[in-house]
Amino acid sequence: MPKVSEDHLAARRSQILDGARSCFAAHGYDGATVRRLEEATGLSRGAIFHHFRDKDALFLALAHEDASRMADVAAEQGLVQVMRDMLAHPEQFDWLGTRLEIARRLRTDAEFRNGWSQRSAELTEATVQRLERQKAAGRLRDDVPTDVLLGYLDLVLDGLIARIASGHTSDNLSAVLDLVEASVRRQH
Amino acid sequence: MPKVSEDHLAARRSQILDGARSCFAAHGYDGATVRRLEEATGLSRGAIFHHFRDKDALFLALAHEDASRMADVAAEQGLVQVMRDMLAHPEQFDWLGTRLEIARRLRTDAEFRNGWSQRSAELTEATVQRLERQKAAGRLRDDVPTDVLLGYLDLVLDGLIARIASGHTSDNLSAVLDLVEASVRRQH
């Protein structure tokens, strides 16, 4: 395939994802109808579903895009920094409320759950590697297994997403994240 | 009002709440239609909305009932024990998935948000009092303000609710809660 055409495809794909992100943020998963997705992306349904099989595929692509970005930060600066970034720019994560809406489907729809788990594999991997490095460097507490530390940080991240989705970030969450960070560090 | 009639009203109210809880758990907030609420409660819409003004009022009454029960446990044994109970019986908290679905409304509907905050005031109060007592007894860390400890436990609770709602409780969450508990305790 010639280069120009690949660039065009990538640009189109990116245009669809950006539009879909705003559309999900504004209307939620069920509310993001095909008509609204057309308006938000400025493209026809034919064009949209040429690039993405269906609304689920769009949703999972967005989740994957987020997880990828988060994985880059997690690899360098850890998962708590990912949370600090979310807290600093909650408006960029509005669409994550959608993630909460789909909780029931995650419980009952195995195929969807599978796609969802895959999207987060990269972030998990980056976080585990960073935790192992920090542990080897003596900066992390060594009395708790790495998988428990990972489970802990993941649980706090889920809490933060729920909080951002419902607009409750005005409290003392920055100090809370300090506490979270301190509690995985080696105690002195 | 004669006693028998008060008993009857309380029983009817309880019947409606139990049915509504299953209905929300099975179908979500939007999916819990009036027809389904009638089926789940075994009562007519007339009877249901004689006791509760509308679906929001039903939902907030359920949230209040939960918060009240949690407050009893939190007052005696702390908020981490509330989470351990949820983890031990996730099926009793299925309906909380609904709480996630309403995140967008919490962000945008001030009246609804207000009703929602009131429902949790009792739980917050019970948790704060217990934290203060533990701090006075020297069992709690004293290098972090109580409001930050409260915000921390609340954030983890929100994460746990998100996890239960999406059916992901099979991991090492019990060990994670040990870590959470240890991190608010006084360090030795």
UniProtKB/TrEMBL annotation, chains A, B:
Annotated region of DNA binding: 33-52
InterPro entries with a match to the protein in the record: DNA-bd_HTH_TetR-type_CS, Homeodomain-like_sf, HTH-type_TetR-like_transc_reg, HTH_TetR, Tet_transcr_reg_TetR-rel_C_sf
A Pfam family it matches: TetR_N
Any one GO MF annotation of this record: transcription cis-regulatory region binding
Domain HTH tetR-type: 10-70
Subunit structure: Homodimer.
Entry keyword set: DNA-binding, Repressor, Transcription, Transcription regulation
Name this protein carries in UniProt: TetR/AcrR family transcriptional regulator
